[in-house]
# Entry
Amino acid sequence: MALEPESGRVARPGERVTMSHKHESLIRTLFHDPISGNIHWREVESLLHHVGANVEQLSGARIRVTLNGVEGILHRPHHSNTLDRSGVKHVREYLARARITPSLYETAAS
# Structure
């Protein structure tokens, strides 16, 4: 299941999910090996909002994200605007648990 960004409704399995090229590219980059060390946090936040995540600021650099019924805690980078490899891995793992993967959008585009 994925949220249809324009309408705010949940798309059914096999239904086309609208995703901008920028966000599709970011999802592929997040899940690509070797892990990139050049992903900007603002791009990740934009993606989270685009797919319909509820983002709540916690103390410090932590945020609570709820997407597709899956809750997780992510951390903004402390000394830069770019995620390091462990930060990218953490975002990747959260998105996979929330069922936001490149294959979801590649299948929808077919």
Observations:
- The helical segments are 21-31, 41-50, 85-97, 102-109.
- Residues 2-109 form one domain.
- The chain has a mean pLDDT of 84.
- The longest helix spans residues 85-97.
